[in-house]
Amino acid sequence: MPLPKLKEIEGSAELEQMIEKAREASDMLKALSHESRLLLLCILAESEKSVTELEQFLGERQSTVSQQLARLRLDRLVTTRRDGKTIYYSLANEDVRKILTAVYDVFCEPVRRRRR
Amino acid sequence: MPLPKLKEIEGSAELEQMIEKAREASDMLKALSHESRLLLLCILAESEKSVTELEQFLGERQSTVSQQLARLRLDRLVTTRRDGKTIYYSLANEDVRKILTAVYDVFCEPVRRRRR
DNA sequence: AGCACATATACGAATTTAATGATATAAAGC
DNA sequence: GCTTTATATCATTAAATTCGTATATGTGCT
Q1: Could you count the other beta carbons within 10 Å of the beta carbon of residue A39?
Q2: φ and ψ at residue A48, rounded to 5 degrees
Q3: pLDDT at A115
Q4: Can you tell me the distance from the alpha carbon of A100 to that of A102, in angstroms, rounded to the nearest whole number?
Q5: What is the pLDDT of residues B15-44, one digit of tens each?
Q6: 3-state DSSP call for residue A60?
Q7: Taking every annotated instance into account, which residue ranges of this chain make up the domain HTH arsR-type (chains A, B) (predicted)?
Q8: Is the Cβ of B8 closer than 8 Å to some Cβ of chain A?
Q9: Pairing relation of β-strands B49-50 and A78-83?
Q10: Where residue B7 falls among pLDDT bands split at 50, 70, 90?
Q11: What is the pLDDT of residue A11?
């Protein structure tokens, strides 16, 4: 009979918390882990943009982009600001930027380095 | 008729590359963005572990854990080493560790800070 | 060879996610 | 108040992911 040693040693309180954090993190990562949404965030990392601008960048339908933005809003990765008819999106906080920077470092920096 | 300005200004070459990188990154993030898989990686970030150890940590069935590990292998987030009957898993490279560290900083560091 | 243990794979069912087209709301200008 | 522009939401369908169970493979031991 194999003993569930590690499980017990860890102590349920600590493990519980670890699991809780993992769920929070995976929720955020799920929002990030979509080609278009990741592109949206990269563009927004530069500066705030209107929905129309984002549509043009991605070359996707308005309703599709709007839906993806809604998802990012729900998961609190972006915030909005209204100016007349147009709505401007931007990154919601520094946490998002941190993760995004790490992703950028891993996947995009090598490209730059190669170019120098 | 609205003009697709930004799309053209960006230049297809650069944009193409950005899209390519976004797809690579989102593929990796998809693998990460799963509660159990993220936990697995966090545990592996500490040190290599056998499948049995991982099962005990997560309290999940062998086949489930093995399936998640297979996914992580496919997406090249982990590597394996066999020693007799047991197979040891560990993080595949520094890129994975970088992303994982960023996620950890955002979601787990605050907890530690609060405790001090 | 035969058995037991550790791990991997296959496959269908259930769930989740994404894209599309159509419609709705909100602000601005006439 | 009507029209245009910008954005959001909804319903439907298509596709991908996850989960559970069953089965297979590989390794060491006797």
Answers
A1: 23
A2: -65, 150
A3: 62
A4: 5
A5: 888 899 999 999 999 999 999 999 999 999
A6: coil
A7: 15-111
A8: no
A9: unpaired
A10: very low
A11: 58
pTM: 0.86
Distance A10 CA to C7 C1' (A): 25
Residue A18 token pair: 């670890």
| Contacts for A108 with CB less than 8 Å, ≥ 6 apart | B18, B21
Segment A66-75, tens digit of pLDDT:
999 999 999 9
How far, in Å, CA of B95 to CA of B99, rounded? 6
Residue B86's SS3 state is strand
From residue A8, how far is each of A5, A15, A21 by CA, in Å? 5, 9, 19
What crossing angle do the helices spanning A12-32 and B35-46 adopt, rounded to 10°?
A: 120
Residues in chain B: 116
Neighbours of B115 (CB within 10 A): 6
C-alpha B88: how far from chain center: 17
Closest nucleotide to B83 by C1' from CA: D27
User: What one-letter code names the amino acid at A83?
Assistant: D
- Retrieve residue B114's tokens: 């609060």
What pLDDT sits at residue B87? 97
Q: Radius of gyration of chain A from Cα atoms?
A: 19
Task: State the amino acid at position B17 in one-letter form.
Answer: Q
Mean pLDDT, residues A50-63 taken together: 95
Which residues are CB-contacts of B61 (< 8 A; sequence separation ≥ 6)?
B55
The residues near A28 (Cβ < 8 Å, ≥ 6 apart) are A75, A77, A99, B107
